[in-house]
């Protein structure tokens, strides 16, 4: 599972959001490069990485945008929500405040992201067992109420990092496939799936350029 | 549809852009003779203002030829003052004061002669060459140093002279004092300097007492929390020392409180670092390796001075670019658009290439602007770059745009070889500068200067040559 130029069936844009210092950049580094850095510098603006994995026999290329956590960057980072089909909303299981702020991040997504975006709540730093401040059950219940999937990860010891990304990509794939089926007899498709088509024509435009692309659209729909 | 939008936006910015360069122009025109890399200017500065009223059609017409001609050729053609890349580089090097060979020696040498002990570069591979050229180097180096010393010792310092001399790099021996003066922290009158220094250091100590040592207001707790999260994440060993982290936290916290319109913004910690390192070196023998330095080994009094000086210089430095850090970071967004327009004019091929692959300038240049390239360059190179920034005084915000443009163009070939969005983004986020030396920075700023001269001081170049 390299990150090279291999062929892929789907290209999904996913954003990583959440408070500063919860470990977004390290989750990304672990997933895309199998690296972890205890003193990774704060992210300025946005950073980009990618990796392709196989889901349901389809090659999926995940284009992941890591965002700065500080509120001041919201205006810049929210531009990157456009066209995203998935979001990992990360908090730190050892810092209650980062969990409390999950609500605010959700409303950010409501304001700026596509309404069909798949959101996964991620409690990171699960290795810090002795410092846990957010009970798993509480977070899981919150996720259920808000229709989010939920997982706890540790970028440090790799626990569940792979699974988290696999799960969200699978879910996105499922949603997209279902929508493609729907579209056979409706125009529902315009809302989400047709977005990528615009890309080719608008490469000169800015923020949504790397949005959400489905290759071989017709073939997939009938597959 | 989208294309139309883009054009309108471009026209709109070109208008602002022209106005902007018009305003800033005065600074440049005043100092023309003093600055390195400057070919004899022949342009009528009046022509600048007329571009502000140029209609969009004119603008479009004037730049449309950029798409047809090879870039290098185009630049040579429009630059009727005949500054080619090569000439700028060589003349920049000459103005720096020495022949190119000796410059390289300065940066690559470490411990040969007395004046070699600059500690600016860690490369020790060129020792033999250094010995050959050692004499030249000493002469050239001490020549520049003595020019600085003469200036700094004069009763009433001529700040313009200091800027002119500093633009091409400040010797490590005099850098702390030169930076204090360039930043406007200390007065030009030498007899008032010591007094001011003492007073400012006391002022800072009082600010610490007033804002930091007392209970922090609820509003400021978020600020403190953010700073407290970011500082320990600064990588090198030096910054893993609690004592250093506390100094940075105080500097940034007090700055944030005193600048409520912007407050602390992630990345500002990187802007403290060059000041901190330069002032820290003042208390150490020249050439000391600071990587493994125990800052506790410096006396408390000196540590306090170091912290206060870093604070005040940072404050002066950020004054000119505060709009970078206000809500929505409008200053940066504006500059990113300027960068886009500039590259479009200078290097249509590269611009098209980036556009074709869906690269948005904001995606890579936001960090360049927000952190003034500190994240893209080795620390010693940032320090050298700041010699030039500080010598640019109030205009460095403008100049930084050209530095970013020159920096992007430096990677032109490699970027053109990347054939997809992913390859381009990954490359742009990790530009390989780890082996850069001061010489690379000298060339970078010389190139930036050439671009500024060609495109900002004379935005009508393209029109008038038609």
Automatic annotation (TrEMBL), chain A:
Record has Membrane as a keyword: yes
Top-level taxon in the UniProt lineage: Eukaryota
Matching NCBIfam families: small_GTP
Similarity section: Belongs to the small GTPase superfamily. Rab family.
Gene Ontology CC: recycling endosome membrane
Key words, A-Z: GTP-binding, Hydrolase, Lipoprotein, Membrane, Nucleotide-binding, Prenylation
Protein name as it appears in the record: Small GTP-binding protein domain,P-loop containing nucleoside triphosphate hydrolase,Small GTPase
PROSITE patterns registered for this protein in UniProt: RAB, RAS, RHO
CDD domains assigned to the protein according to its UniProt record, in alphabetical order: Rab11_like
Topology with respect to the bilayer: Lipid-anchor
SUPFAM superfamilies linked: P-loop containing nucleoside triphosphate hydrolases (SSF52540)
Entry-linked InterPro entries: P-loop_NTPase, Rab_GTPases_membrane_traffic, Small_GTP-bd, Small_GTPase
Pfam families: Ras
UniProt subcellular location: Recycling endosome membrane
Main location: membrane
GO MF, one example: GTP binding
TrEMBL record, chain B:
Domain Rab-GAP TBC: 169-393
Keyword terms of this UniProt record: GTPase activation, Phosphoprotein
GO terms of molecular function: 14-3-3 protein binding; GTPase activator activity
One Pfam family linked to the record: RabGAP-TBC
Sequence segments annotated as region (Disordered): 34-53, 112-135
Domain of life where this protein originates: Eukaryota
Gene3D superfamilies the UniProt entry points to: putative rabgap domain of human tbc1 domain family member 14 like domains, Ypt/Rab-GAP domain of gyp1p, domain 1, Ypt/Rab-GAP domain of gyp1p, domain 3
Function, as annotated: May act as a GTPase-activating protein for Rab family protein(s).
Name of this chain's protein: Rab-GTPase-TBC domain
Organism: Cinara cedri
């Amino acid at each position: 599972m390299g990150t090279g130029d291999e062929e892929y069936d789907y290209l999904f844009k996913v954003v990583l959001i959440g408070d500063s210092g919860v470990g977004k950049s390290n989750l990304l580094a672990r997933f895309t490069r199998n690296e972890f850095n205890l003193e990774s510098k704060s992210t300025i603006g946005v950073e980009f990485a990618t990796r392709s994995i196989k889901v349901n026999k389809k090659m999926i290329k995940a284009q992941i945008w890591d965002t700065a956590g500080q509120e001041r960057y919201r205006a810049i980072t929210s531009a990157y929500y456009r066209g995203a089909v998935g979001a990992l909303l990360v908090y730190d299981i050892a810092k209650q405040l980062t969990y409390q702020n999950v609500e605010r991040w959700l409303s950010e997504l409501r304001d700026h992201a596509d309404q069909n975006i798949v959101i996964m709540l991620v409690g990171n730093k699960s290795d810090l067992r002795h410092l846990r401040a957010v009970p798993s059950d509480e977070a899981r219940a919150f996720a259920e109420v808000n229709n989010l999937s939920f997982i706890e990860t540790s970028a440090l010891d790799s626990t569940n990092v792979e699974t988290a990304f696999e799960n969200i990509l699978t879910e996105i794939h499922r949603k997209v496939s279902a929508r493609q089926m729907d579209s056979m007899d409706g125009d529902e498709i315009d809302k989400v799936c047709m977005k990528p088509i615009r890309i080719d024509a608008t490469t000169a435009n800015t923020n949504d350029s790397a949005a959400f692309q489905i290759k071989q659209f017709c073939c997939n729909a009938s597959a | 549809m989208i294309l139309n939008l883009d054009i309108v936006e471009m026209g709109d910015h070109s208008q602002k852009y022209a106005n902007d360069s018009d305003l800033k122009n005065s600074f440049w025109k005043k100092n023309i003779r003093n600055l390195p890399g400057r070919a004899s200017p022949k342009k009528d500065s009046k022509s600048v203002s007329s571009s502000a009223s140029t209609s969009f059609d004119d603008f479009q017409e004037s730049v449309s030829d950029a798409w047809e001609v090879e870039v290098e050729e185009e630049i040579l053609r429009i630059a009727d003052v005949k500054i080619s890349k090569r000439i700028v580089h060589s003349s920049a090097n000459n103005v720096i004061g020495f022949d190119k060979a000796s410059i390289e020696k300065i940066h690559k040498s470490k411990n040969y002669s007395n004046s070699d002990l600059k500690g600016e570069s860690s490369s020790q591979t060129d020792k033999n060459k250094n010995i050959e050229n050692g004499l030249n180097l000493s002469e050239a180096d001490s020549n520049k140093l003595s020019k600085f010393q003469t200036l700094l010792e004069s009763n009433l310092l001529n700040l313009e002279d200091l800027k002119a001399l500093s633009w091409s790099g400040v010797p490590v021996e005099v850098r702390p004092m030169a930076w204090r003066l360039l930043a406007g922290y200390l007065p030009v009158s030498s007899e008032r300097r010591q007094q001011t220094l003492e007073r400012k250091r006391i002022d800072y100590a009082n600010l610490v007492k007033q804002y930091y040592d007392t209970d922090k207001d609820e509003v400021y707790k978020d600020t403190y929390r953010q700073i407290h999260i970011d500082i320990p994440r600064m990588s090198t060993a030096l910054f893993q020392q609690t004592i250093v982290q506390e100094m940075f936290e105080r500097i940034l916290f007090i700055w944030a409180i005193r600048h409520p319109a912007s407050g602390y913004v992630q990345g500002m910690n990187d802007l403290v670092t060059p000041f901190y390192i330069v002032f820290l070196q003042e208390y150490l023998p020249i050439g000391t390796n600071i990587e493994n330095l125990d800052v506790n080994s410096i006396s408390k009094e000196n540590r306090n001075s170091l912290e206060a000086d870093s604070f005040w210089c940072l404050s002066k430095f950020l004054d000119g670019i505060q709009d970078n850090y206000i809500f929505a970071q409008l200053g940066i967004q504006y500059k990113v658009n300027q960068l886009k327009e500039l590259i479009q004019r200078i290097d249509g091929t590269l611009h098209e290439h980036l556009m074709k692959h869906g690269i948005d300038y904001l995606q890579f240049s936001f960090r360049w602007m927000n952190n003034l390239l500190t994240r893209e360059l080795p620390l010693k190179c940032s320090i050298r770059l700041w010699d030039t920034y500080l010598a640019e005084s109030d205009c460095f915000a403008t100049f930084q745009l050209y530095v970013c443009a020159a920096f992007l163009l430096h990677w032109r070939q490699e970027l053109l070889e990347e054939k997809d969005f992913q390859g381009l983004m990954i490359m742009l986020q990790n530009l390989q500068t780890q082996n850069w030396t001061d010489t690379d920075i000298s060339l970078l700023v010389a190139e930036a200067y050439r671009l500024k001269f060609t495109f900002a001081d004379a935005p009508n170049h393209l029109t008038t040559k038609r």
